[in-house]
Design goal:
With about 220 residues, the protein is α/β, with parallel strands linked by helices. It has two domains: about 110 residues, 3-Layer(aba) Sandwich (Rossmann fold); about 100 residues, Rossmann fold (3-Layer(aba) Sandwich), CATH 3.40.50.12500. It contains eight helices and eight strands; from the N terminus they run βαβαβαβαβαβαβαβα. A four-stranded parallel β-sheet has the order 2-1-3-4, sandwiched between helices. Strands 6-5-7-8 form a four-stranded parallel β-sheet, with helices on both faces. Strand 1, helix 1 and strand 2 form a beta-alpha-beta unit. It is globular.
């Protein structure tokens, strides 16, 4: 079995995959597992509603089955964690969702976390997930920047909106740690953290960091 972590971008936007791949650079190390980022080319351009979530579940399962023999762990790089539990039933390898891992990481960095979402219609989906995790009391708020996944490529506009929303979560909602609510935001983490003065969790990094730990410690 290859010591390889497969990071699956369930949408078909290659720019998102490139951003995730660049965000993995600090986690690539000599002697550590390889980190490979792939795009589900048959997925929608962005996972922006529950229909999109349901659409990609079988595609993720097919990818996990296809790569099960040459990967030691899988990361589903979408903040809705589509098909997470279904994929876990298809393999004995670790399967990690970036929303779950991003939120769990945030809990170690602050008392109340805020989520930066892409669209307002994403927020109810996120709130359901936080409720299922039993963490409503630790969530300060979830605010949207009002841009779709494809629009995140507009760097000036995206960062401006992210900075505004981050400040609102900090100043109005009382968040002391922020979670990026979309894998397409990966390229903005360092800059946003410097700007807002709070820890900012990029959830794909959080999930891969956990996958590396499980690989190194031989946790199934």
């Amino acid at each position: 079995m290859s010591d390889r972590i497969l990071v699956i971008n369930p949408n078909s936007t290659e720019a998102v995959t490139r951003g995730i791949d660049a965000a993995m650079d600090p986690l690539r190390m000599q002697g550590g597992p390889a980190i490979e980022c792939v795009t589900l080319t048959d997925g929608p351009p962005g996972i922006e509603n529950q229909g999109h979530v349901e659409q990609v579940v079988p595609l993720i399962g097919a990818m996990v089955k296809q790569r099960d023999n040459d990967c030691s762990a899988f990361v589903i790089a979408c903040y809705s964690d589509p098909g997470l539990h279904a994929a876990r039933e298809l393999t004995t390898k670790p399967v990690l969702g970036i929303a779950e891992c991003g939120i769990l990481t945030a809990l170690t960095l602050g008392q109340r976390f805020g989520v930066i979402s892409i669209l307002k219609k994403s927020i109810p989906r996120h709130l359901r997930y936080v409720g299922q995790m039993g963490l409503n009391d630790r969530m300060a708020g979830d605010r949207a920047i009002g841009l779709g996944v494809v629009e995140l490529a507009d760097e000036a506009r995206t960062f401006s909106r992210m900075a505004e929303v981050a400040a609102e979560l900090r100043d109005e909602d009382g968040a002391d740690v922020l979670v990026m609510g979309c894998a397409g935001m990966a390229r903005y983490r360092d800059r946003l953290q410097r700007h807002v003065g709070l820890p900012v969790v990029e959830p794909s990094q959080a999930a891969v960091a956990m996958a590396i730990g499980r690989s190194r410690l031989n946790w199934a």
